[in-house]
Amino acid sequence: MSKTIQAVRGMNDMLPADAPLWEFFEETVRDWLRGYGYKQIRTPIVESTDLFVRSIGEVTDIVEKEMYSFEDRLNGEQLTLRPEGTASCVRSVVQHNLLYNAPQRLWYMGPMFRHERPQKGRYRQFHQVGIESLGFDGPDMDAEHIIMTARLWKLLGLEDVALEINSLGSAEARANYRAQLIAYFEQHADVLDEDAKRRLHSNPLRILDTKNPAMQAMVEGAPKLIDVLDEASLKHFEQLQQMLQAANIPYRINTRLVRGLDYYNATVFEWVTTRLGAQGTVCAGGRYDSLIEQIGGKPAPACGFAMGVERLLALMQDQGFEPPADGPDAYVVHVGELADKVAMTLAEDIRNAGFNAVLHCGGGSFKSQMKKADASGARYAVIVGDDEAQAGEASLKPLRGEGEQVRVPMAQIAEGLRG
Ligand code: ATP
Ligand code: MG
């Protein structure tokens, strides 16, 4: 026998036992998005490598070490499995000129790929639901994004997710701050780890985000961007806070929140939980007013966020969430030559009446079929023997909870299922 082949490390199967949870999540998300008037966009999973380098930024974890990039064997093109959705979404909007005369509220859902060290809540293929609002410049859109996520947590029954916000200001404010920050870090060069030293001149803001305990105290004392924000960003940030207060959404300003992608400016936010260990960020986003232009479009403001589906599902499970049962309404059991003949039509009739039906396939004794009916999670077994078939009838046996088995004309089965 040949050796079995395993899934690629860090890439998971979604097995049928997990489907009810995933489906509940996806359906809840679709309804929720409809409630806010967002439209779905789907983009290819593979894009030109250049798209991500240009948008996410050369000196970021993603571009430096996490991308699955390869050369197309036939034409030598440099391609990458998408590590996130914003760049592709903006690329598509620009390519199809979707911002021509109207702003857009868009969403997407699907797999993303990053070559990270696999651990709980961190995979090499993972899923995101993301939202991008393009062509909106006011804090009202930032507030909408935060308010809508707060609603989603309620719909999913999630507690213990806390909101952190910050403002990264304008590119100019950030450039001034960057110089201050480099000077500060240079004064503390003895505390900087290898990663920080490497980033000192290329991406010093990211050093604020370090998880190294030995650097925490030093980083705490660093100058704060919020203290040197440009006036417009400060006003935007204050207005956003007023809107959050009016909506009764508690938040904490985290001046060290900088996000790992270069395209952000002004508002950034994260929803974090302490229940998932180190992988506590379940949703993150912010404003990226220069990205559309950077990708070759006519300048337009934009903001968005993405959430990690696996982390949200883990949080739901951690809180004991039980997805609704996904058994069919009826499982059709049939034994005997004539019964076998009518069963398929009967199952179709049940479906015509608007119910889900699983038709037993593969034969077997009455007893073994009833076992399968029970295991399917069906509400009712619909039983046909040659006897019933002769008489144009079937028996309806409740499988969950109370109730007697009744024998009724086949035409009345749907009514029985309704009751
Ligand atoms: P982290 O700091 O945890 O690496 P990130 O800043 O790289 O997160 P984003 O690029 O902002 O993450 O992606 C948005 C969300 O997608 C994250 O908040 C997280 O919930 C989820 N996510 C990111 N990377 C992974 C991964 N490798 N596995 C599972 N979920 C992930
Ligand atoms: Mg990351």
Automatic annotation (TrEMBL):
Assembly and oligomerization: Homodimer.
Domain Aminoacyl-transfer RNA synthetases class-II family profile: 1-324
The reaction(s) this protein catalyses: tRNA(His) + L-histidine + ATP = L-histidyl-tRNA(His) + AMP + diphosphate + H(+)
Keyword annotations from UniProtKB, A to Z: Aminoacyl-tRNA synthetase, ATP-binding, Cytoplasm, Ligase, Nucleotide-binding, Protein biosynthesis
Domain of life: Bacteria
InterPro entries from the UniProt entry: aa-tRNA-synth_II, aa-tRNA-synth_II/BPL/LPL, Anticodon-bd, Anticodon-bd_dom_sf, His-tRNA-ligase, HisRS-like_core, HisRS/HisZ, HisRS_anticodon
An MF annotation (GO) of this entry: ATP binding
HAMAP family named in the record: His_tRNA_synth (MF_00127)
Subcellular location(s) per record: Cytoplasm
Family: Belongs to the class-II aminoacyl-tRNA synthetase family.
Sites where the protein binds L-histidine: E84, G85, T86, R114, Q128, E132, R259, Y263, Y264
Pfam families in UniProt: HGTP_anticodon, tRNA-synt_His
Record EC number: 6.1.1.21
Record-given protein name: Histidine--tRNA ligase
Keyword Protein biosynthesis: yes
Organism encoding this protein: Novimethylophilus kurashikiensis
Enzyme's top EC category: ligase
GO cellular component, one term: cytoplasm
Keyword Protein biosynthesis: yes
Entry's Gene Ontology BP terms: histidyl-tRNA aminoacylation
